[in-house]
Design goal:
alpha/beta, about 240 residues, 6 strands, 6-stranded mixed sheet
């Protein structure tokens, strides 16, 4: 077996698979096993059962479903996850709301199970001035399902917290998507702002909520989101940096 990879120092700066070393013409056995474990975790995150009822109870939220009847249909037909089921649609009541918070399993139920409740609480606490619609928890949901929910509730701002497609170094990332005045079938991806890699080992939950709050206030001030709203939120000063 060869010695340490000469690029080994780079590995201290990223969880990506760099500087793995060599054993002859192949990877060391330990690195192969690590890859197989990461791949298994990613597959588990996509296929893990989502206990929407438990999360909804924790958040005092409503449970909704999409037109994807099961996980297999959800994965094979992405459009099904972008529309509510008929039963869920009729259960939404319009109100005088500023914002709707939608929590969906997306492609990683593992991520939402781990961080969904804490993140939802942090988001609402970061924007106390808004009239929030009841939180909704969606099974087999994709980002665009938030458009239909926000419009049905009468909210001008949609915030979707959704499990991100797992990578081989992170299976528990949550993405946040903010959309101003969403319209089902009309709103484009370019009309949304995204905050990605929200997880304890990525962008911390409270920092993500801080950035989202800045974006939401700017969206309400400008009447726009997505390409019409530049994400240049100022860095939040820590106690140490404020004293420096």
């Amino acid at each position: 077996m060869s010695g340490a990879d000469e690029w080994h120092a780079l590995a201290a700066f990223t969880p990506a698979r760099v500087a793995l070393g060599r054993a002859g013409s192949a990877l060391p056995t330990r690195r192969v096993l690590e890859f197989q474990l990461a791949h298994a975790r990613a597959r588990d995150a996509v296929n893990a059962p989502f206990d929407a009822a438990a999360l909804a109870a924790e958040l005092d939220a409503m449970c909704l479903t999409t037109k994807a009847a099961d996980r297999a249909a959800y994965l094979a037909n992405p459009d099904l996850g972008r529309s509510l089921s008929d039963a869920s649609r009729v259960g939404l009541a319009r109100g005088a709301y500023d914002a709707a918070l939608i929590v969906a399993d997306g492609l990683s139920a593992t991520a939402i199970r781990a961080h969904g409740a804490a993140l939802a609480r942090a988001i609402r606490a970061s924007l106390p001035e808004l009239a929030w619609a009841p939180v909704t928890v969606v099974t087999n949901g994709r980002i665009a399902v938030g458009d239909e929910i926000a419009q049905a509730l009468g909210a001008s701002l949609a915030v979707v917290a959704i499990g991100e497609r797992p990578g081989l170094s992170a299976a528990d990332s949550v993405g946040l998507y903010l959309t101003w005045r969403p319209r089902p079938g009309v709103t484009r991806d370019a009309d949304r702002n995204c905050i990605s890699n929200v997880r304890p080992d990525g962008l911390p939950l409270d920092e993500a909520a801080h950035r989202l709050a800045w974006l939401a206030r700017q969206a309400r001030r400008l009447g726009a989101s997505g390409v019409g709203l530049k994400e240049d939120a100022p860095e939040r000063l820590t106690d140490e940096s404020a004293r420096a």
